[in-house]
Amino acid sequence: MNALSAHPAALRPPAPAVTAPRFPGWGLGEWFVIAQTALPALLFLPGTQPVRLYLRVASFVISAAILVVWATSARVRRRAHPADPWLVAATIYVALMMLHPLTNSMMAGAAHLALYVSVIAPLFWAGACVRTADQLARVLGILLVCNGANAIVGVLQVYDPATWMPQEMSRIVTESAFGLGAVTYMGPNGLIVRPPGLFDNPGAVAGPGMYAALLGLVFAIGLAPWWKRVASVVAAFAGMAAIYLSQVRVSLVVCVVMLVSYVAVLAVQRRTRRATVFGSLAAGLVAAAFSFSLFLGGGSIAERTSTLLTQDPISLYSASRGGQLIYTFDELLTTYPVGAGLGRWGMISGYFGRSDNPDSTPLWAEIQIAAWAIDGGIPLLLLSIAALAVTFTSQVRAACLHTNPKVRACAAVILAANVGTVALMLSFTPFVTQIGLQFWFLAGALHSVAAEPERRA
Fold first, then answer.
1. Is 456 part of a structural domain of the chain?
2. Range of the domain at 359
3. Angle at the Cα of 215 (from 211 to 221), degrees rounded to 5?
4. If both were cysteines, with which of 56, 154, 190, 430 could 197 make a disulfide (CB 3.0 to 4.6 Å apart)?
5. How many structural domains are present in the chain?
6. What residues are paired with 192 via a beta bridge?
7. Whole-prediction pTM value?
8. 397-424 per-position pLDDT tens digit
9. Other residues' Cβ atoms within 10 Å of the Cβ of residue 246
10. 261 vs 416: CA distance, rounded Å
11. 457 in a domain, yes or no?
12. In a domain, 407, yes or no
């Protein structure tokens, strides 16, 4: 597409300060994006469960390591992001929470702090890896390939589970009280395990499916060669179908929010024709993928999806994650207004927490609001929300006001994708996962590209 086409080689900027072995024109940013799918995908291989922890934390360790390299580089030059002071203040506050009397242990506290740092780290170093709108467009293309491949595998796992389903699922699921029974549903030919895609956790393919659907449609309506547009449509279709087949309703809702957000940004940009084409294709995709999923997954797909239309949205949310939201404001923030200490929830508690500390028993967090309330109370909640608010303000400005049409095109896609990430906060904890890594990586890369002098553009 014109908005995402390549610049002449003569206009390419100098090599970034942080580099890696690469294909022509590739840098560390591209390889980092690939690693976010490739590393967890190793769990698809049999015999990898004993090293699951190391594979799951590898992406975060890489992010933190790049931050150290970037911070110690003599060539560090970066225009401050509007979220910098808010995130730095939030990180300092989390560090102080290690001294909280209810922090489970110094080990758990340190692990929790390291998780926060590694997730926000890409905001600071992404600009050293992604320097032009062309490179940012290439990163979005790589995200489409990775998430599209993930979604296609997810669909194949329902079509032919004997061939495509991983031999070993996450022990967190298989060794639970319910086993795989809690993540299965009745299909036309028997029980179907919710597809994990290129992961080992049933239903995990729903996340990549959201981004495959959005990015696939974006690239499908461009001016790329026909075979690329066809491949993009296939990836988008697989992404939407994977969401239906995984039966993760929140991912379906968030995906629709992302698609609608992109149409809205196009309308604000006064790209009416493109908005109309994209919206029409998106509506057709949602319907076609639903019909395909019914054929593959049976009536359980219709029963699960219909609840989004037949039930009152507020009642539906209250029955699923609404209790966590009430619990956050009625109990967590009133009992622990400045935080309940670190290492008290999630996998950090499971892997690094001490069970012999009666004053720091595990707490439960299913949504990001609750997680921030536990880790830092009202101060951390306000700082984090402020960081997101100024980030979105910056992205809206880039999408609507930047003089370079290529930057505006990339910003529109990133804004829509990141809206989806924030929407997940009410039903998930995205900012302590790889989804949060992706959010801050795209935010940092877009800010760097948008801040480049127009002569570079």
1. no
2. 2-451
3. 155
4. 154
5. 1
6. 185
7. 0.90
8. 999 999 999 999 999 999 999 999 999 9
9. 31
10. 5
11. no
12. yes
